[in-house]
TrEMBL record:
Domain Peptidase M20 dimerisation: 202-341
Pfam families for the chain: M20_dimer, Peptidase_M20
Keyword terms of this UniProt record: Hydrolase, Metal-binding, Protease
Name under which the protein is recorded: M20/M25/M40 family metallo-hydrolase
Native organism: Arsenicicoccus cauae
Keyword set includes Metal-binding: yes
Length: 450
């Protein structure tokens, strides 16, 4: 399908696709433990029906042991054509009331700026819709063999990496399209060539058998809360750089990031500077970044004049592309052991590790993808990184030696606000990525048949 025909298809299909997008957003498909299963089951059934309407007759629910099912199908292309697996996920982040949304997060709301607001509008139901529209363009007869793989628990404790490791033949492909990323801003084409990984764990610091009077014992008895503050502060220098000894790091060689635009996108308050030093792209994409994402202690409205005997913290460290996740996890834990104040007892639990990704952008499949982006957008694509993690990418490539992974999507970093309040997507980006995927599959199929 040439670009002109693809654009004609998109003009006709986009209104229907945006209706389907709104239906998906209406499902509070949170896969985190403790959330109801019914919305997950309901959205899965809707997805089956949507893909069947778009030419994927044999789409099915694929059982993922221990987790929610994946939406799966194999749509054969011409004999001898490459196999392309197209991935996105249909689960979303929770929406706690503390986020203070300006519209109902479970209603796709089109606002005056043209963007569609709601949880998952960008991450990753926009990617799902871009894949749905791509399949609809070929109505069951794609120019390549296409495998569909839509995960149901990417945002939480995913089980699909274990399934891939146990069933590599089920995902073996020549190329993977991971439609769960996006450009720096709307209308700027890009491919994500590096993803940071993530290692996370809970650390409990204990100093006393029980709480004691802060007047009688304060100043000498070791307070666990003060100790935890001291311990956590050792992970950063005074500029906010992560300084855990031994973590993998390098300087990013691709496109840089405009600091003023980034600060505005992050919602930095007037007069508050950015954290860290050096090129912003390196800080975001190729250096480690330690974050305290949870801290259990006495709430202010329940506090008393007492020293705290024990405190828990949840630590997440984004690790640089190319790093070994098990080694990085142990490096962080060892850093904390060495810096434990007063000889405090440290206990580690609930550790989790996700692989980083560093792509080889010199291959022919990546070249085809870049050409498709340039044709659709009318400008040269940038090769960017992402501080986010998609651990599945590394596992997919392990299952398919020699394959290439293309990471792109409609989630612009400037305004999408994924995982936060007022998440949104520009529908024009959904259309552009859909068009790029149509052209990519067309050219990949033509190259193999030629």
């Amino acid at each position: 399908m040439d670009l002109s025909a693809a654009r004609d298809y998109a003009r006709e299909a986009m209104p229907r696709l945006l209706e389907d997008h709104a239906t998906l957003v209406g499902h509070p498909s949170v896969a985190f433990p403790g959330y109801p299963r019914e919305p997950m089951d309901a959205i899965a059934q809707d997805l089956l029906e949507m893909f069947r309407r778009n030419g994927v007759a044999d789409v099915e629910l694929l059982d993922i042991p221990g987790g929610y099912p994946a939406i799966h199908a194999v749509v054969p292309g011409p004999e001898g054509s490459p196999t392309v697996t197209m991935y996105a996920h249909y689960d979303v982040q929770p929406c706690p009331s503390s986020q203070q949304w300006h519209s109902d997060p479970w209603v796709a709301t089109r606002k005056d700026d043209g963007r569609i607001y709601g949880r998952g509008t960008a991450d990753c139901k926009a990617g799902v819709i871009a894949i749905l529209g791509t399949m609809g363009a070929f109505d069951g007869t794609p120019p390549c063999t296409v495998r569909l793989l839509l995960e149901g628990e990417e945002e939480t404790f995913s089980h699909i990496e274990d399934w891939v490791a146990a069933n590599p033949e089920m995902v073996r492909s020549d190329a993977f399209i991971i439609c769960d990323s996006g450009p720096s801003k709307v209308g700027v084409p890009s491919i994500t060539s590096g993803l940071r990984g993530d290692v996370a764990f809970t650390v409990t610091l204990t100093t006393l058998d029980n709480a004691v009077h802060s007047g009688l014992f304060g100043g000498a008895a070791p307070d666990a809360l003060v100790g935890m503050i001291q311990l956590l502060s050792t992970m950063h220098d005074q500029d906010g750089n992560t300084v855990i000894e031994g973590l993998h790091s390098f300087e990013w060689e691709g496109a840089d990031v405009d600091e003023a635009e980034f600060a505005a996108s992050a919602g930095a308050k007037d007069g508050v500077g950015l954290q860290g030093t050096g090129p912003l792209a390196s800080r975001l994409w190729s250096r480690p970044s330690a974050t305290v994402i949870g801290l259990d202690m006495v709430p202010v409205d329940q506090c008393s004049n007492a020293l705290v005997p024990s405190v828990r913290a949840r630590i997440s460290v984004r690790i640089a592309p190319g790093a070994d996740m098990a080694q990085e996890l142990e490096t962080v834990m060892e850093h904390l052991r060495r810096h434990a104040p007063y000889g405090a007892t440290l206990e580690f639990s609930d550790d989790k590790a996700g692989s980083p990704f560093l792509g080889d952008t010199s291959g022919p499949i990546t070249a085809t993808a870049l050409a498709a982006l340039e044709e659709v957008y009318g400008s040269t694509p940038a090769q960017v990184g992402s501080g986010g993690s998609i651990p599945l990418v590394t596992e997919l490539l392990h299952a398919s030696p020699g394959a290439e992974a293309i990471l792109w999507g409609p989630e612009d970093e400037e305004k999408a606000k994924i995982h936060g309040p007022d998440e949104s997507v520009d529908p024009a980006e959904i259309e552009r990525i859909m068009l790029a995927q149509i052209r990519f599959l067309t050219e990949l199929g033509a190259r193999s048949s030629g």
